């Protein structure tokens, strides 16, 4: 059983390793193997289509596009929802000495947004379009989380797009450099209107050394998906382990913080609570949630 994640140092990889530990401990199937993917959500969807992985981490704003075959996906991919993973803030950081305080001030700056084909780069593109910017308004630097953090420390870029907290790269960077989380200010509501899949979230004061006060940021729900052709019994067992082991996942990896709170809406709202972007729940997931009493 193979689980698609993202590039080394990424949050998806950290979550994937924790999920592997949970599944192996519960003997859900043959030992799980975690697979890295440079372009994260996009590559995971493509690998699910070819059958080289059975589960993959994706940002919820890309799964509907994959299902419909919209750009950046060349063909329709028959994805199925399994479970939520977390709702993580997307935020820009800069060195405190830069003087930058708001996202709007990034116009004309050098910004590290992740590898060119990554989900993070796609998020950055969405955000810049929400601001009314074109490709000529910013200089895009394509480096992964760890490389981007080092480039920011050296002054080779002016800002970096990070997601979510806690993540090891951000925690290490926050401990070694004086940083500032940039605010959206009056551009926040227009951003949410431009991309309805983003959810407002508050980064609490003290969550990072550089956060002296709470910060309102957009959040994306990250999810674990499969493919319609993946065996229903396997999906059922994996889904049941995630639902029953949500608190254990939090202990294994703090990135899952809040995961137990993402399941009650399923009981209250039905399948629609989890069917982001119109991607239906896998039959195996439906069976698992019914047995757990989360779905009627």
Overall description:
It is a single chain. The protein is of the alpha/beta class and 296 residues long. The chain has 2 domains: 2-87 and 221-291, 3-Layer(aba) Sandwich (D-Maltodextrin-Binding Protein, domain 2), CATH 3.40.190; 89-219, Periplasmic binding protein-like II (D-Maltodextrin-Binding Protein, domain 2, 3-Layer(aba) Sandwich). It has 11 helices and 11 strands. It has helices spanning 11-25, 40-50, 60-68, 119-130, 145-153, 168-176, 188-194, 232-244, 246-252, 264-269, 283-291, and strands spanning 2-4, 33-35, 55-59, 79-89, 91-95, 110-112, 139-141, 159-162, 179-181, 199-203, 215-227. Strands 1, 2, 3, 4, 10 and 11 form a 6-stranded mixed β-sheet that branches. Strands 7-6-8-5-9 form a 5-stranded mixed β-sheet, covered by helices on one side. β6 (110-112), α4 and β7 (139-141) form a beta-alpha-beta unit. α8 (232-244) crosses α11. The longest helix is centred in the first third of the chain and has 15 residues, at 11-25.
């Amino acid at each position: 059983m193979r689980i698609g994640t993202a590039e080394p140092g990424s949050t998806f990889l950290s979550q994937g390793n924790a999920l592997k530990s949970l599944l192996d401990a519960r003997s859900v199937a043959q030992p799980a193997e975690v697979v890295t993917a440079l372009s994260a959500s996009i590559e995971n969807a493509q690998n699910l289509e070819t059958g080289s992985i059975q589960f993959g981490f994706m940002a919820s704003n890309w799964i509907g596009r994959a299902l419909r075959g919209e750009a950046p996906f060349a063909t329709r991919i028959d994805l199925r929802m399994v479970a939520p993973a977390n709702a993580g803030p997307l935020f820009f950081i800069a060195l405190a000495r830069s003087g930058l305080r708001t996202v709007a001030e990034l116009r004309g700056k050098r910004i590290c947004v992740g590898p060119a084909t990554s989900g993070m780069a796609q998020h950055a593109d969405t955000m810049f379009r929400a601001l009314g910017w074109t490709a000529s308004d910013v200089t895009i630097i394509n480096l992964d989380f760890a490389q981007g953090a080092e480039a920011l420390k050296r002054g080779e870029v002016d800002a970096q797009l990070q997601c979510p907290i806690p993540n090891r790269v951000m925690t290490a960077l926050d401990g070694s450099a004086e940083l500032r989380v940039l605010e959206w200010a009056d551009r926040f509501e227009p951003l949410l209107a431009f991309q309805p899949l983003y959810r407002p979230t508050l980064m609490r004061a003290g969550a990072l050394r550089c956060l002296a006060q709470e910060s309102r940021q957009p959040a994306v729900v990250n999810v674990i998906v499969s493919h319609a052709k993946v065996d229903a019994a396997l999906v059922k067992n994996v889904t049941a382990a995630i639902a029953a082991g949500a608190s254990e996942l939090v202990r294994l990896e703090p990135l899952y913080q809040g995961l137990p709170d993402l399941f009650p809406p399923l009981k209250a709202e039905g399948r629609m609570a989890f069917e982001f972007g119109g991607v239906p729940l896998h039959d195996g997931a439906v069976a698992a949630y019914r047995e757990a009493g989360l779905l009627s």
